[in-house]
Amino acid sequence: MSIWFDGFPMDYAVERAKDSMIGHLGIEVIEAGDDYLKARMPVDRRTKQPAGVLHGGASVTLAETLASWGAAFCVDRTKHHCVGLEVNANHLRPVSGGFVTAVARPIHLGHTTHVWEIRISDEHDKLVCIARITMAVLATAMQY
Fold first, then answer.
1. Contact between 125 and 90 (Cβ < 8 Å)
2. For residue 141, what is the DSSP state?
3. Is residue 44 within 8 Å of 114, Cβ to Cβ?
4. Distance of CA 29 to CAs 10, 38, 79, 90, 122, Å?
5. CATH assignment, 10-139
6. Domain ranges of the chain
7. What does pTM read for this prediction?
8. In three state form, how does the secondary structure of 38-80 look?
9. CA distances to 1, 52, 73, 141 from 64, in Å
10. From the candidates 64, 86, 117, 123, which is the catalytic residue?
11. Active-site residue, 64 included
């Protein structure tokens, strides 16, 4: 059974990301399965810290991007929207080049909160970062 309210609109996500931090960092959503969302991000001049390895903030941005997209499309967007409430990330291994890939899966999809786990791995499938993000599910105000 799929977690998506009415499917995951890959083309919409790609288009919306272009002129944002997501596009600036080169984050690409590449797959939406029945119960997960996958993206990749380059480890290059945009995402490295001065020491030459992946910046922890870039990993958190990748994780929060997936949790935000995931939460947004698990709810009826005519009635609700989702915002980040809490982020926790453990950085486990440095990466100096190539790409990292993140897979986000919900741990909890409630009426008022979602909790997502995001696992970021390097090109050798070694775990680089694990993050947990809590999203608030809010009622969307009527627009006149």
1. no
2. P
3. no
4. 7, 6, 25, 22, 16
5. 3.10.129.10
6. 10-139
7. 0.94
8. EEEEECCCCCECCCCCECHHHHHHHHHHHHHHHHHCCCCCCCE
9. 24, 23, 14, 24
10. 64
11. yes
